[in-house]
Amino acid sequence: MSDSTIRASDADRERVVTALQQHVGEGRLTLDEFSERSAAAYRSRTRGELDVLTRDLPTPAPRASTTRRPLVPVLVVVAVLLLGALLAMGYPATADAMGEMMSQMGRMCG
After folding, report:
1. Residue 100, in any domain of the structure
2. N or C: fewer beta carbons within 10 Å in the chain?
3. 64 lies in a domain?
């Protein structure tokens, strides 16, 4: 059995409609084209019918993550550099002050 004759799942249909939405946002499809293709996607019974709807479009780029986790390593490096600069200038840093600074960074990132 070829992949194009396999029955499409609801998740398959949603993936195609999501890709079509992204192509509208990028200016490759008009709203009318999106409407026609998304309606056809929801009517599709096989993966082959879904493939036809996106065949003339490039594979969409993955969407950027909105999570702030990549910022955490940057903030840690900045804190360490700032602490080093303060110590080099003779600023009296105590364990309590360092702990408070790390706690504040955790609240900012978390």
Report:
1. yes
2. N
3. no
